[in-house]
Amino acid sequence: MSISVLDFEKPIAEIADKIDALRVAAVENPDLLPQINKLKIEESALRKKIYSKLSTWQKVQVARHPNRPHTLDFIERIFDEFEELHGDRQFADDGSLVGGLANLEGIPVVVIGHEKGRGTDEKVRRNFGMPQPEGYRKAKRLMQLAEQFELPLITFIDTAGAYPGVEGEERGQSEAIARNLAIMSSLKTQIIVVVTGEGGSGGALALGVGDHVAILEYGTYSVASPEACASIVWREADKAEDAAEAMKVGALDLKKIGIVDEIIPEPIGGAHQDFDETSANIKTSLLKNMTELSKINHEELIERRYQRLLKIGA
Questions:
Q1: What's the rounded mean pLDDT across residues 216-237?
Q2: pLDDT, position 2
Q3: Alpha carbon distance 264, 278 (integer Å)
């Protein structure tokens, strides 16, 4: 998988290109190895420096990185025996939302998440991770399944938003999202939410009501995309950078104002640099919080969830 380079990463990419060129030459000239090692140290230091002071807009770009791991990547690395379930039993199956039964270190759970897909054909099939109403109704069915069998529910959020097309509105997009919010608010089982990439608008909120909400270090979460906000407030989409800053969509700001409870660290350079390390960090968080939440009975969980929502913005 070739790694796409963001604008602010170009100085890092230039050093990486030099390293690659020297590696080819070093096959016949081993004397170049010390120079390669020196450049590796320089590349690592520069990556660390750049990523230590990213602007909010740059974090938005990292959250949207085309090589960033998606829900199925995390499921493959975190869970065992994943059995995907399909269809909403009303209209169709929506590939932009995946979910099913899985095991987490021997604990049976229900997992649901947005899936953007890779490659043109799969991205089109999964509608670029923007669910239709049938996707949210499939998620609702799985949520109710988790409650019925008293299984922990884990959701992964990574979407620009729900699909805004006419056909989605015809099939009740807003009702499907609202129904999920209502169900998650009163679900009698523990819910852990992880924002893994961009969490945009109601499309993200429909999976976002939980007992513990975590976000990856370079993830974002907002009521609308920065571009949409800029178009509404300034009538100019190119003001997205200013909008991102004003909306406080980054993980640190979200933690300060109580939208999220935990920031899960990523490898230096973002989750796309190391899927395994990122997945291991998420798994550690899931196990820790599932243990804590398992000590709380269902009635207390629901009341705690309700109070958590009331505190936001207070």
A1: 91
A2: 63
A3: 8
Identify the band that residue 162 occupies on the pLDDT scale cut at 50, 70 and 90.
very high
Q: Which residue has the tokens 């571009």?
A: 227
The neighbour count for residue 153, using CB atoms within 10 Å, is 25
CA distances from 310 to 31, 126, 189, 257, 259 (A): 64, 34, 20, 12, 11
Do 59 and 218 touch, CB atoms closer than 8 A?
yes
Q: Which residue has the tokens 């020297």?
A: 22
DSSP letter at 127 equals: G
Q: Which helix (H) or strand (E) holds 64?
A: none
DSSP state of 189: S
The ranges assigned to domains in the chain are: 7-53, 59-311
* Residues with Cβ within 8 Å of residue 161, at least 6 apart in sequence: 130, 200, 201, 202, 203, 204, 224, 225
Beta-sheet pairing, 80-84 with 97-104: antiparallel
* pLDDT, mean of residues 122-135: 95
Residue 183, C-beta contacts closer than 8 angstroms, at least 6 positions apart = 140, 143, 144
Contacts of 16 (CB under 8 A, 6+ apart): 43
Cα–Cα distance between 306 and 265 in angstroms, integer? 27
pLDDT at 24 over 80: yes
The class level of CATH for 59-311 reads: alpha beta
**293 residue type, one letter:** L
pLDDT of 33? 87
Other Cβ atoms less than 10 A from the Cβ of 32: the count is 16
The 10s digit of each residue's pLDDT in 253-301 is: 999 999 999 999 999 999 999 999 999 999 999 999 999 999 999 999 9
pLDDT tens for each residue of 174-192: 999 999 999 999 999 999 9
**For position 118, what pLDDT does the model report?**
92
DSSP 250: B
Burial degree of 219 (CB within 10 A; 0-12, 13-18, 19+): buried
| 128 Rama sector, left if φ>0, alpha if ψ -120 to 50, beta otherwise | left
